[in-house]
């Protein structure tokens, strides 16, 4: 049964989205988006570098998916985590296929298959964060609604030529994940890997926006969009490394608290004394069978 808190969260989110749709103008898909800087063809492959630079997504997606199920290599603590990471790694592998298909002949119809797996990756990551740092049951129940929300945002753009819902699905995780990483106590160690992943994604978005300038700066060796693919692929790489290295956190202290402990020094009786302050939370852990 869905809790009142879950209903409240979803209600607030839906209300905020409705207000956003009312107060903001429609954002149509610009056809200039398909005009990439590097349109060279090698070995008979159109837009070669923009196509083949998607290959790392497939490799890391398959590796991550296999390790999710290989003797519980990632030591996931609940069924919800397993479902969330499964959706994530499947979508990462699918990005390679969808993006390659799009870049062979860039147009709106093919762009759907480029963006669809990315939205699944974004939304599955949010559900994983809720499971790990807020509430296991709430996060597990949110997996399907969040995935459907991502898919609907793509369909809305396709039928109404309006990118606003897709923009929300893409950029809310970019803000929420770093904030949740810093402020909420983690279930596992190695939380900094989340920030590394967020940093690489931010760089990837900058490279995407500077596609043509980078192509000029590198004397037509590589474009910003090709680099965007490679840097974005580092996101699942870091998350896979995190999953392989992390263990259950015995002292659940947020990064913010950790940094505050490191930075806060109180001068007392002429000596520098550390002022320690701890915050603990309890997120139920369901042992996987």
UniProtKB/TrEMBL annotation:
Pfam families recorded: Ceramidase (PF05875)
InterPro entries on file: ACER
Spans through the membrane: 7-28, 48-70, 82-104, 116-134, 141-160
GO molecular function, one term: hydrolase activity
GO annotation, cellular component aspect: membrane
Main location: membrane
UniProt superkingdom: Eukaryota
UniProt keyword terms in alphabetical order: Hydrolase, Membrane, Transmembrane, Transmembrane helix
Transmembrane recorded as keyword: yes
GO biological process annotation, one example: sphingolipid metabolic process
Membrane topology reported for the UniProt record: Multi-pass membrane protein
Subcellular locations according to the entry: Membrane
Family in the record: Belongs to the alkaline ceramidase family.
Protein name (database record): Ceramidase
Organism: Cinchona calisaya
């Amino acid at each position: 049964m869905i809790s009142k808190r879950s209903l409240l969260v979803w209600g607030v989110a839906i209300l905020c989205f409705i207000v956003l749709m009312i107060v903001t103008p429609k954002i149509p898909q610009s056809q200039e988006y398909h005009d990439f800087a590097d349109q060279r063809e090698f070995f008979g492959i159109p837009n070669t570098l923009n196509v083949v630079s998607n290959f790392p997504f497939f490799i890391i997606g398959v590796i991550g998916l296999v390790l999710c199920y290989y003797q519980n290599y990632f030591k996931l603590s609940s069924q919800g985590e397993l479902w969330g990471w499964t959706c994530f790694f499947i979508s990462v592998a699918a990005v390679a296929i969808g993006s390659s298909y799009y870049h062979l002949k860039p147009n709106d119809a093919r762009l759907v298959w480029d963006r669809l797996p990315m939205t699944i990756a974004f939304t599955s990551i949010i559900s994983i964060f809720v499971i790990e740092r807020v509430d296991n049951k709430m996060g597990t129940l949110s997996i399907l609604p969040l995935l459907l929300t991502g898919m609907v945002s793509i369909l809305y753009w396709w039928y109404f030529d309006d990118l606003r819902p897709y923009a929300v699905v893409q950029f809310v995780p970019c803000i929420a994940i770093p904030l949740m990483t810093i402020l909420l106590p983690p279930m596992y160690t190695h939380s900094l890997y989340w920030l590394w992943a967020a940093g690489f994604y931010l760089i990837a978005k900058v490279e995407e926006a500077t596609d043509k300038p980078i192509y000029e700066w590198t004397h037509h060796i590589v474009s910003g969009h090709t680099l965007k693919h490679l840097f974005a692929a580092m996101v699942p790489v870091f998350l896979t490394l995190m999953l392989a290295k992390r263990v259950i956190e015995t002292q659940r202290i947020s990064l913010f608290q950790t940094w505050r402990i490191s930075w806060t020094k109180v001068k007392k009786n002429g000596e520098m004394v550390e002022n320690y302050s701890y915050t603990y939370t309890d997120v139920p852990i369901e042992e996987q069978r």
